[in-house]
Amino acid sequence: MDTAVGIGSNIAPGRYVPAAIQALHARFGTLDISTLYRCPAVGFDGADFINLVVIFSTDEPIEQVQAALRDIETANGRAQRARDGSRTLDLDLLLYGDTIHDDGTIRVPRADITDYAFVLAPLAELRPQGVHPSLGRTYAALWGDDSAPCQPLIAIDWAELAGAD
């Protein structure tokens, strides 16, 4: 099952973004990795975030994938799940194949896909012809739409990430 995860960090991202990628690779194998984007914090005053999306294939149940993401966050200094605040690492389960799931704890597809440019742009980059399970539109079409989210994004390279701390 193709699974998409959003990665974000605004505390020492040069350390925590590579750590997240290593941990996800160790757990799930091959990763498709989007461009890195620097973007302002949304909803609070804080340092800019580094964001990206990774996609991997897994047969693990959705609950195990979510638990693995929380374990990786905790191992990398994420102490609490407050939505509006700086964080070492934020791993969000965006997509789990074509599954539409909402049990009050896990929701996929995640609403962030159409709410935030730092989620939709990298997803459209990795899977332009992928179809949003609820909306029935491709990620490229959603990104090209006039109603696409328009937060500022700056593409950065890995060398720049190393100096982002």
Taken as a percent bin, the fraction of beta residues is 15-25%
Low-confidence stretches: none
Q: Could you describe the largest sheet, including whether it forms a barrel?
A: 6 strands, antiparallel
Mean pLDDT: 93
List the secondary-structure elements in sequence, H or E: EHEEEHEEEHHHEH
Number of helices: 6
Alpha carbon gap, first and last residue:
34 Å
Tell me the Rg in angstroms. 15 Å
Corresponding CATH superfamily = 7,8-Dihydro-6-hydroxymethylpterin-pyrophosphokinase HPPK
Oligomer: single chain
GO molecular function: 2-amino-4-hydroxy-6-hydroxymethyldihydropteridine diphosphokinase activity; ATP binding; kinase activity
Function: Catalyzes the transfer of pyrophosphate from adenosine triphosphate (ATP) to 6-hydroxymethyl-7,8-dihydropterin, an enzymatic step in folate biosynthesis pathway.
Organism: Salinisphaera japonica YTM-1
EC number: 2.7.6.3
